[in-house]
Design a protein that fits this description.
329 residues; alpha/beta; 8-stranded mixed beta sheet; 4-stranded antiparallel beta sheet; 12 helices
Length: 329
């Protein structure tokens, strides 16, 4: 049985704006086991990145504030640690690859300087040892002539190579959990495929858990074992990947999957679109946040927000309606 290493319960995050308080995350709970890959999917603005930034306590405070919840990593609550204690976790035990490598890398520091910095901070090794490991990491992620490239700057690398450098930085201290925040968004499809294969190979070699944040359901299908669908700052469906693709139970998940082009000829009709826009939550959701866009909406959806409940083994859904029959559960 896999060991649970990250257990998040009841996470709530708010942001104060000129228009009011935005309730970005509204009681999110999930867990991650050793060595598994978990996908978090949903359209832009649903709270995917903010959830993980909250766990790592990287949201700007103010205007943000983590108002409730816990995030236990190996049974220590990350939300209760001091900033100094968190610095020993970030980068060393939980690492994160950000979406845009050009803005994540410092343009005035060499790649070697940025690669060795976390190792010198967390591993207590000499500069010579850090340089040797930096070369090994660059070679591991497929960058040729690695030793000479340590002296280069980010602008001297292509987008795909910068993303590989970000992976090398994230892996430099052998983290237990790697969070990848839409890492393939800015890459063309060929480089995307190479990137995904690289991450899968590195995970097999290093045994780390991966949380992969994306809005691309095609990428996550061949990468994750388990998938969580997010909407309105809440998880609305969670299942093993094959089960979720074969048997989606939430109307939003059905819409997401229906928007994917297919090559197997099973769906020759036009792609599905989901009318409307995601909610801007100036108050905690008291009804289903997807109700205004849902074709299965019933009166109870407008009165009460459903909880995420198990409907089959390892399959949870937050919906009042059985979409197969269109009736209340």
């Amino acid at each position: 049985m896999q060991k649970k290493i990250l257990d998040v319960k009841g996470l709530e995050t708010r942001f104060r704006t000129d228009e009011g308080v935005v309730h970005a995350i509204n009681g999110v709970s999930f867990e991650v086991n050793e060595g598994e890959t978990v996908g978090i999917v949903g359209e832009s603005g649903c709270g995917k990145s903010v959830t993980m930034l909250s766990v790592l306590r990287l949201i700007p405070m103010p205007p943000g504030v983590i108002s409730a919840g816990s995030a236990e990593f190996y049974e220590q609550d990350l939300l209760k640690l001091s900033e100094k204690e968190m610095q020993s976790v970030r980068g060393a035990q939980i690492a994160m690859i950000f979406q845009d490598p050009m803005t994540s890398l410092n343009p005035v520091l060499t790649i070697g300087k940025q690669l060795t910095e976390p190792m010198l901070l967390h591993l207590s090794i000499s500069e010579e040892e850090a340089d040797r490991r930096a070369v090994e990491l660059l070679e591991m992620v497929g960058i040729s002539e690695a030793e000479g490239r340590l002296k280069d700057y980010p602008h001297q690398f292509s987008g795909g190579m910068r993303q590989r450098v970000m992976i090398a930085m994230a892996l430099s201290c052998n983290p237990k959990v790697l969070i990848a925040d839409e890492p393939t968004t800015a890459l063309d499809v060929t480089i995307q495929a190479q990137f995904v294969d690289l991450v899968k190979r590195l995970q097999a070699d290093l045994g780390m858990a991966i949380i992969w944040i994306t809005h691309d359901l095609g990428v996550i299908a061949g990468l994750a074992q388990r998938m969580m669908v997010m909407y309105g700052g809440l998880f609305i469906e969670e299942a093993d990947v094959k089960e979720l693709y074969a048997n989606p139970q939430h109307p939003y998940t059905v819409g997401l999957l229906g928007s994917l082009p297919r090559l197997d000829g099973k769906h020759a009709e036009r792609l599905v679109s989901i009318d409307g826009l995601p909610p801007v939550l100036y108050a905690p959701p008291t009804s289903c946040p997807f109700a205004p866009r849902c074709e299965f909406v019933v009166e109870k959806c407008l009165e009460e927000n459903p909880a995420l409940e198990e409907v089959a083994p390892n399959h949870k859904v937050a919906c009042w309606v059985d979409i197969a029959t269109g009736r209340m559960k």
